[in-house]
Amino acid sequence: MTKELDHLKRREFLKAGAVLAAFSIVPRHVLGKGYTAPSDRHTLGFIGCGRKGNGLRTPFLNTGKVQIVAASDAYASKQKHFLEATDQWYAEKNNKGSYKSVTGYSDFRELLARKDIDAVVIASPDHWHGSMAVLAANAGKDIYCEKPLSLTVKEGRAMVDATRKNNRVFQTGSMQRSAQEFRQAVQLVRSGVIGKVQKVVVNVGGPPKAWDLTSEPLVDGLDWNAWVGPNVNKRPFNHVVAPPLDADFWPKWRDYDEFGGGGMTDWGAHMFDIAQWGLDMDSSGPVEVVYSEPDQGLVYKYANGVEMVHQPMSGSNFCQFIGSDGTVWVSRGKLKVTPETMQNKEFESGAFGVYDSQNHYLDFLKAIETRKPPICDVETGHRTATICNLGNIAYKLKRSLRWDPLQEIIAKDPEATRLLGRKMDPEWDILNS
Predict the structure, then answer these.
(1) How far apart are CA 39 and CA 23, in angstroms?
(2) Average pLDDT for the chain
(3) Where's the Gfo/Idh/MocA-like oxidoreductase bacterial type C-terminal domain (predicted)?
(4) Residue ranges making up the domain that contains 350
């Protein structure tokens, strides 16, 4: 670390501390009923200021229990928008014309160096999750990281290890676990209402594709090298993967295997997650992935005899449990149960070992306070991402895999084993450091 950078970090820390101190001297009663004093709030730094980062900003602010003090993005215009929107939120809350409380950083490591930041929210593209989360854990930050947890299985395990080593709280952004219809579905399955589970059907998109985009002139304010980051394949800029914030489409980086895992990891990280939860496999996984043909999908086989089918996307994303005595079908906002008389069966909170969270963001903040695991702990997120990544490996190689969920190894397949990780830029390598 250079003396100049060290000086900058000390200066930013002192400036941030002054802002927080000035705010905290306001008497609690002046702030209004229900207002949380700064001393009772958690200071957050956001890493990633695109659509997802902006989407997460509001629910975190609405908890009334956080103070966002910093943000970082390789895209200057996206960072600027995030800072302005956050400051505007605070200005309106405090009846002020302007309110400057959030500092921007082009290098997220400067954000991590601030001792006054309790936790970070990682909302970057998937290829950055592993490096950012490990560095954040090593910097002593609690972490909220968007799903899917990791681009590769080995990066996911590195994230778990760093979290445990540094005694950090880690919430994976699989927020469906905090939605009533999914919790109800899992409790119905675990309670035995549909009998013995025989099969699970997961309906999500397929694997990513190889890079096929041409080089385009770089837009002003985007540090493309920083955006590409850990990837050794330094692909040229194309607006399809990194569009401006006001683009009328979602960034398509997840369609390409250098940056994401296609529909398998995008919606798969949601629906495979519910399947794992319902099967009580949050710390384990299947023992075999059977490949047939791309249009026929995959069959994941568990040691207990349950089969989980990934079928090509058709209609809405969903997860369906098929038992000896009935079925549970669940999608966002929809739950269908047979027998129908069990549709609205009531359960006590925590029944059948199903963690009860009403709000994914408050649950994370509660875990920070109690130092107990949140509803979607890093190990849980890692196991779900592993399901997705193993499926992508099977699709890529067009063959079946034998998987050991305890040792996290693929049996007798060196080529598939290499795909459990990836070569990373030495500056960001968390697999060989």
Answers:
(1) 10
(2) 91
(3) 212-429
(4) 176-207+263-418
